[in-house]
Specification:
Largest interface: A-B, 28 and 23 residues
Low-confidence stretches of chain A: 1-5
Number of strands of chain A: 21
Strand order of the largest sheet of chain A: 7-8-9-3-10-11
Strand content of chain A: 25-35%
Distance between the termini of chain B: 51 Å
Mean pLDDT of chain A: 86
Radius of gyration of chain B: 20 Å
Low-confidence stretches of chain B: 224-234
Strand content of chain B: under 5%
Structural class of chain A: alpha+beta
Oligomer: heterodimer
CATH topology of chain B: MetI-like fold
Number of helices of chain A: 11
Radius of gyration of chain A: 23 Å
Number of strands of chain B: 0
Chain lengths: 381, 234
């Protein structure tokens, strides 16, 4: 078995269904692996399969977690199957799913008691502190808001000390504010563990924020899979996302010592200015002392529609964020008003979505040096 | 209650003893049975459900008649029992218990079944992902969440056994402190045209049933089922 299979998840599944046949093969490392795709593309199916929730389904395939076999079946043969309760997993469901007859604390203790790994109290205390659960411990689940309940579910999944963490659109039932808050929590939590996390979502924001690898599913098949930045900057992927196409690039926060209420971010050699509002809540809370975050690496999520191209540095333009780059690749579709251009800016790729008309009038070709004008970004993580 | 005779008191005590024993046995039997019925996908389920429900619709005299035939020393079961030196169950307290258990079974299984059926599948899946085995899930999730149903079942089973008459008459007979339960005692009073004594016992029974049901339903409606609360809040 390969080295990656020993420290991550290696799985395959063939499952004929009425709507479509699931046929996937995935090798995913420790870290956050996002499964992305439209509803009904098989994302939840894969999570349920990994968890072992549908005992009697006629799956064929195998599951290896850190080299340990959880499931193995060849069509028509006797299968090996570890029951769901014997798999070391943490599962966060789409809708809050606390045990309704137990208090928050009892819910957490329920998990600790059944954890396959002995538990230190320190972890419990620090988790409670991190997720701000202390005031909720004696509440019943029905007294919690959706966001609070999901926080408890997240804590519960961590307290199991799982070998595999499965999250099924954990933010989809929450409002925008709670989404941001929980995302911040998850970023900090995921940083503390070294296990494969399978995170199902159809939000590109969550992808940009969390994803280490990105797997795009369609009709039960893996369409693209790989390092998240790489998959997102693939023009074929961007084309299917249409106006939502985006990439993220790694940048560094410089400072905000200027009279314009802007923060300065370094992307390679270029310096970009953005309003503070693009900062994530985690950083924005400390806006009085932003210099503490000087040199903090961040991800910039750049939507392809928020970027334009110029062949020269525009004179007297309101758009000041301008980076020099080289056209890497172009995606043209005769039936679409828009085309996609990927531009290499110092080793990272930005995708630009412009009309075919301007593409043609600018006479752009691969290898040409251009200037990318960024109207806005979202800074994540 | 000064007007209760010693015989009446004996009947009351016997009735309570019978109903408690029967309720205890029924809860122990019906809880796993109901959970099996909720979970199973076997073709076997339909005939079992029908069998369990039958005592609810058959006239008690029919049940009593077959118990009488089955338990009589000349039946095959009677032969077997005699062979292993088990005294005949007819006209005995044990016989009453056996018959009452079957007679009241549907009234106990039904509420438990409904309560268990109301537990969302997702809740059990959550417990499984946390690492709870099927037995663990039964005790830590299913039992607590169906507690209101189990309480209702116990109360209904108890009251139904108290109110039993036909079966007792057929197989229990009329032996004081053995098989002479409240309903038979009332019947005897009426036969003897002792309406006053019949009134005391009947009236008490009416009041008792009303109070018990009142308490039961008001507790249930207050939302003792955390399960229903949870679903409402969604």
């Amino acid at each position: 078995m390969s080295a990656s299979a020993n420290t991550g998840l290696s799985t395959s599944l063939i499952w004929p269904r009425k709507s479509f046949d699931v046929d996937i093969q995935l090798t995913l490392p420790a870290g956050v692996n996002v499964l992305f795709g439209p509803s009904g593309s098989g994302k939840t199916t894969i999570l349920r399969y990994l968890a072992g929730l549908d005992r009697d389904a006629n799956y064929a395939g195998e599951i290896y977690v850190n080299g340990e076999c959880w499931f193995k079946a060849i069509t028509g043969h006797k299968k090996y199957q570890l029951d769901c309760h014997k798999r070391s997993i943490g599962y966060v469901f789409q809708t809050p799913s606390l045990l309704p007859h137990l208090t928050v604390k009892q819910n957490l203790v329920y998990a600790i008691k059944r954890s396959k790994v002995s538990q230190s109290l320190v972890t419990f205390e620090s988790l409670i502190a991190l997720l701000k659960l202390a005031p909720l411990l004696h509440h019943m689940p029905h007294q919690l808001s959706g966001g609070e309940a999901q926080r408890v579910s997240l804590a519960r999944a961590f307290l199991i000390k799982p070998k595999l963490l499965l999250l099924d659109e954990p933010l989809s039932a929450l409002d925008v504010l709670h989404k941001q808050e929980l995302l911040d929590f998850m970023v900090s939590l995921f940083a503390t563990i070294n296990i494969p996390v399978i995170y199902v979502t159809h939000s590109l924001e969550e992808v940009a924020r969390l994803a280490q690898t990105l797997t795009i599913l369609e009709n039960g098949k893996v369409k693209y899979s790989g390092e998240a930045q790489h998959v997102l900057s693939n023009l074929a992927v961007a084309a299917t996302l249409g106006r939502d196409a985006c990439v993220y690039v790694e940048a560094i926060i410089c400072d905000d010592e200027n009279p314009w209420c802007l923060i300065k971010v370094a992307l390679g050699d270029a310096q970009l200015y953005f309003p503070r509002s693009v900062l994530p809540q985690r950083l924005a809370q400390h806006n009085t002392a932003l210099r503490h975050f000087k040199n903090t690496p961040v991800r910039l999520k750049i939507n392809a529609s928020d970027v334009s191209l110029a062949r020269q540095i525009p004179q007297q333009s309101s758009i000041q964020n301008c980076i020099e780059g080289v056209i890497d690749c172009v995606w043209l579709d005769e039936l679409d008003a828009y085309c996609l251009v990927s531009v290499d800016v110092g080793g990272q790729v930005i995708i630009v979505r412009i009309t075919r008309k301007s593409f043609s009038e600018l006479a752009l070709v691969c290898g040409m040096t251009v200037f990318v004008l960024i109207k806005s970004v979202v800074i994540t993580g | 209650m000064l007007s209760l005779s010693a015989d009446d008191w004996a009947a009351v005590v016997l009735t309570i003893k019978l109903a408690s024993t029967v309720t205890g046995i029924l809860i122990v039997v019906s809880t796993p049975l109901a959970w099996w019925l909720v979970q199973t996908q076997s073709w076997f389920k339909a005939p079992i459900v029908a069998l369990v429900a039958m005592p609810a619709i058959l006239p008690p005299t029919v049940l009593g008649f077959y118990f009488l035939v089955l338990l009589s020393p000349s039946s095959w079961l009677g032969h077997v029992l005699t062979a292993v030196h088990i005294p005949s169950l007819l006209f005995s307290f044990t016989g009453l218990v056996v018959a009452s258990v079957i007679y009241s079974l549907p009234f106990v299984v039904q509420p438990i079944y409904l309560a268990m059926k109301g537990i969302p599948k997702a809740t059990l899946e959550v417990a499984a992902t946390i690492g709870a085995s099927p037995t663990d899930r039964f005790f830590s999730i299913v039992l607590p969440l169906s507690r209101p149903g189990i309480i209702a079942a116990a109360v209904l089973g108890f009251i139904h056994t108290v109110g039993e008459f036909g079966v007792v008459l057929m197989i229990g007979g009329n032996i004081p402190q053995q098989t002479k339960v409240l309903s038979i005692q009332i019947y005897d009073h009426v036969e003897a045209l002792n309406y006053e004594a019949a009134h005391v016992l009947s009236g008490s029974l009416v009041l008792f049933s009303f109070v018990v049901l009142l308490v039961l339903y008001s507790v249930l409606w207050r939302g003792a089922n955390p399960n229903t609360i949870e679903r409402r809040s969604r």
